[in-house]
Design goal:
This protein is of the alpha+beta class. The protein folds into 2 domains: 150 residues, Fructose-1,6-Bisphosphatase, subunit A, domain 1 (Fructose-1,6-Bisphosphatase, Chain A, domain 1), CATH 3.30.540; 113 residues, D-Maltodextrin-Binding Protein, domain 2. It contains 7 helices and 17 strands. An 8-stranded mixed beta sheet has the order 4-3-5-6-9-10-11-12, with helices on both faces. A 5-stranded mixed beta sheet has the order 14-13-15-17-16, with helices on both faces. A two-stranded antiparallel ribbon has the order 1-2. Helix 4 links the parallel strand 13 and strand 14. The N and C termini lie close together (11 Å). InterPro entries: IMPase, Inositol_monoP_metal-BS, Inositol_monophosphatase-like, Inositol_monophosphatase_CS, Inositol_monophosphatase_SuhB. Its EC number is 3.1.3.25. One of its GO terms (molecular function) is metal ion binding. This is Inositol-1-monophosphatase.
């Protein structure tokens, strides 16, 4: 998948801590709108974008509040958001999912989140001594308003849950691992690849869970609740923040085909280094090669 290639003559390093602070503020603004609607779900106007792909005014209003905050605080960055689109531009681009787990939200299942990530583009300076060679997530927030759990990460500095540093599990083998995944729900074209993967995981792992919110699957992998996670058919904004959070928690999060610098194509494999590697080995025999 093509990525944005900015000019090489870039200014001073991106202030990653300021970017994270802006993202946290924006996430809280979006979540406040979601929670205000959570008590009045019967009144929500719901549109069907495609089969099993729903959007409500809660998604749209939360996204608008998030974008307003980010544009005010970081006007030079690009924005790519689930409902309103956008494009990569400048030194870095925000990827926004105002409500990851829309189906859970609409069915009153308290497992959904706001996900916001900043992707610094190739050539961007992230410190006085480092200029990135490839597009890379550099600041990320996943906020679960039902549990009031705020997962954050900054490139090179670490990952946190409500201000406490987190790390991936130390589980070494799939036999001892609890894995997270997501079933095909919107795009069924890869089901013939995915179902054998699921079969292998069920037979090899200690347990497999499907909770329906990719951003939280990644965040929970980062804090050790899950040992590993894989899924296909996602969007870039589903995985952008979680990718960084896993990486900064000492784990690995990669494109399933191991080609892109982060899983922008929506096929993700994550876990501590041992489990991420084992998942790739489990998946590889069933995975079609990209055309």
């Amino acid at each position: 998948m093509e990525t944005y290639d900015p000019p090489r003559s870039l200014a001073s390093p991106v202030d990653l801590c300021a970017a994270l602070d802006a993202a946290v503020t924006a996430a809280h603004a979006g979540a406040a709108i979601l929670q205000s609607y959570a008590h009045h779900r019967a009144d929500l106007v719901i549109d069907r974008k495609a089969r099993n792909d729903l959007v409500s005014q809660a998604d749209r209003e939360a996204e608008a509040a998030i974008i307003e905050q980010l544009q005010a605080r970081t006007p030079k960055f690009g924005i790519v958001a689930e409902e309103t689109g956008g494009q990569a531009q400048g030194a870095a681009t925000w990827y926004i999912d105002p409500l990851d787990g829309t189906t859970n939200f609409l069915h009153d299942i308290p497992h959904y989140a706001v996900s916001i990530a900043l992707i610094a583009h190739a050539g961007t300076a992230v410190s006085p001594t480092e200029r990135l060679a490839r597009d890379t997530p550099v600041a990320g927030v996943v906020y679960d308003p039902c549990r009031e759990e705020l997962f954050t990460a900054v490139y090179g500095l670490g990952a946190w849950l409500n201000g406490r540093r987190i790390s991936c599990s130390r589980t070494r083998t799939l036999d001892d691992a609890v894995l997270a995944t997501g079933f095909p729900f919107r795009d069924f074209s890869f089901a013939s690849q995915y179902m054998p993967m699921l079969h292998d995981a069920i037979n090899r792992a200690r347990g497999v869970r499907r909770m329906g919110a990719a951003a939280l699957d990644l965040a929970w992998t980062a804090c050790g609740r899950y040992d590993g996670y894989w899924e296909m058919g996602l969007a870039p904004w589903d995985v952008a923040a979680g990718t960084l959070i896993v990486r900064e928690a000492g784990g690995a999060c990669s494109d399933m085909h191991q080609q892109d610098s982060w899983p922008i194509g929506g096929r993700v494999v994550a876990g501590n280094p041992d489990i991420e590697r084992a998942l790739h080995e489990m998946i590889a025999p069933h995975l079609d090669q990209p055309g």
